[in-house]
Write a structure and sequence with these properties.
Layout (H helix, E strand, L loop, with lengths): L12 E4 L5 E2 L35 E5 L22 H21 L5
Antiparallel strand pairs: 1-2, 1-3
Length: 111
C-alpha cells in the first residue's frame, strides 16, 4: 500500500502597513528570536514589527510567496497580465525598457 500524500500548508506572508516590512514564516524573525516556520497567528501578541515597532494588528495578509498579486476576482482581466507573479511582471517591464533603449541607441548607427 502506498501512503497518502501529505499536503504541506501554504504559509501566508504578512506585510506591515506602516513601513512595508514583510514577515515570512519560512524565515522567522531573528531580531525577536522567532524560529523559522512560525506562523503569523502563532506570534505572541506582544510581537512588534522589527523595522518600525508597529503592533501585530498593523499587518495585512498578502498571501504566499510567488503568487499573482491582486484580488482573485480581478485576475481574469488585463489580457492575462494579471496572472503574472511580481517577478514575471518586473522581467516584462524592465525587459521592454531595455529593448526600447537598445532600439533608441541603434538609431545612432543610421547615417
Amino acid at each position: 500500500m502506498s501512503e497518502p500524500a501529505v499536503e504541506t500548508p501554504v504559509l501566508d506572508r504578512y506585510e506591515c502597513r506602516a513601513c512595508g516590512y514583510v514577515y515570512e514564516p519560512e524565515k522567522g524573525d531573528d531580531t525577536h528570536d522567532i524560529p523559522s516556520g512560525t506562523l503569523f497567528a502563532e506570534l505572541p501578541i506582544t510581537w512588534r514589527c522589527p523595522v518600525c515597532s508597529a503592533k501585530k494588528t498593523a499587518f495585512a495578509n498578502i498571501g504566499p510567496a510567488g503568487t499573482a498579486s491582486g484580488f482573485k476576482e480581478n485576475l481574469g482581466y488585463g489580457l492575462g497580465v494579471n496572472n503574472l507573479t511580481p517577478t514575471q511582471k518586473n522581467i516584462l517591464i524592465f525587459g521592454a525598457l531595455a529593448l526600447g533603449f537598445l532600439f533608441f541607441i541603434s538609431l545612432y548607427g543610421l547615417q
